[in-house]
Amino acid sequence: MERDKTEVAEKIAKDHESIRRYIGALNLSEMTEVDAKEFFDWKLEFIWQLRDFKNRLLKHFDLEEEGGFMEDIVKVAPHLSRKVSGLKVEHDQILMSLDEILFKLKRMKKKNDTELEQVQFELNDVITSLRDHENEENILMQQAYYREFGSPG
Ligand SMILES: [Fe+2]
Fold this sequence. Notes:
By secondary structure, this protein is mostly helical. It has helices at about 5-25, 30-35, 40-65, 70-75, 80-105, 115-150.
């Protein structure tokens, strides 16, 4: 049976929304404000939060890569296939950056403001890349689904 294309589009859109909520829940400013005494409690919590976020992203990327979305784009618009490959590469880059951040945090044996500021900066960078990436996907989604099949809403 042919997959329902508007269903794919809706699933991705919903997932993007959920990812945005995850990003909103990450409290980046707390990082440098935390008391040195509470640093290790904070660090463990934050590492767990980042791991959950990474896992959430992995599932989101699975959905995009395996759920028909990227396949449909290439089918409807073959000239976008390089763009789609680029999106997959970006998925890996985003995950790698998160791993690096996790590694840096784990290595930190005491509260170090300079290093934390660096981590904060890098995490902000990942979030910005992720947002740009999602926007890009939304545009492709419009091209692949909405234009051909009409608005699913
Ligand atoms: Fe996405």
